[in-house]
TrEMBL record:
PANTHER family in the cross-refs: L,D-TRANSPEPTIDASE YAFK-RELATED, LD-TRANSPEPTIDASE
UniProtKB keywords: Cell shape, Cell wall biogenesis/degradation, Peptidoglycan synthesis, Signal, Transferase
Family to which this protein belongs: Belongs to the YkuD family.
Sample GO molecular function, one term: transferase activity
Name of this protein: L,D-transpeptidase catalytic domain
Gene source species: Puniceibacterium sediminis
Signal peptide: 1-22
Annotated Gene3D superfamilies: L,D-transpeptidase catalytic domain-like
GO biological process: cell wall organization; peptidoglycan biosynthetic process; regulation of cell shape
Source organism phylogeny: Bacteria, Pseudomonadati, Pseudomonadota, Alphaproteobacteria, Rhodobacterales
Cited InterPro entries: LD_TPept_cat_dom, Transpep_catalytic_dom
Active site: 123 (proton donor/acceptor), 140 (nucleophile)
PROSITE patterns per UniProt: LD_TPASE (PS52029), PROKAR_LIPOPROTEIN (PS51257)
Length: 165
């Protein structure tokens, strides 16, 4: 009797666990060949060649105007980089890394004796920033948690990303 009750509860728990939504989505459409960010318009576009597959409203660093120069300046970098890593355990739901800083970024920061910073990601948005505050990151690009699930599924490492003013 006791074993039967345990077995029923265990099966019920496994069944319910299988019903939970996964943050890892699948994508079987055309390959994303380029990511384009227009900082001024607060938009990000996922492209297949010249065709827009998906666009997103975005948040930026807390000092969004201008190119990121040094660590802690709150700016989002401008230029061409690569998507170079993924973090499935991000504190911002999911995240994909941008290859900032490049050689030029390092040289510019070095000229003034500073670190260029790093750890620039496209990531989700925690609940405390869902109150209308658009630009809140330390230089990253943010979308909603639901949207980063799409981005994470669609964009592969090695994809170029152009971040424009």
């Amino acid at each position: 009797m006791r074993f039967s009750r345990f077995l029923i509860l265990a099966l019920l728990a496994l069944t319910l666990a299988g019903c939970a939504d996964s943050k890892f989505k699948s994508y079987n459409g055309p390959a994303v060949t380029h990511v384009v960010v227009q900082k001024g318009a607060r938009k990000m576009y996922l492209l297949h060649n010249d065709k827009v597959l998906r666009d997103f409203d975005i948040g930026l660093g807390f000092a969004p105007t201008g190119h990121k120069m040094v660590e802690g300046d709150g700016r989002t970098p401008e230029g061409t980089y690569l998507i170079d890593r993924r973090n499935p355990n991000s504190r911002f739901h999911l995240s994909i890394g941008v290859s900032y800083p490049n050689h030029l970024d390092r040289a510019l920061a070095e000229e003034i004796g500073k670190s260029p910073g790093g750890d620039i990601f496209i990531h989700g948005r925690p609940k405390q920033y869902r109150n209308g505050q658009r630009d809140w990151t330390w230089g990253c690009i943010s979308v909603t948690d639901e949207e980063i699930e799409e981005v994470y599924a669609m964009v592969r490492d090695g994809t170029p990303i152009s971040i424009n003013p």
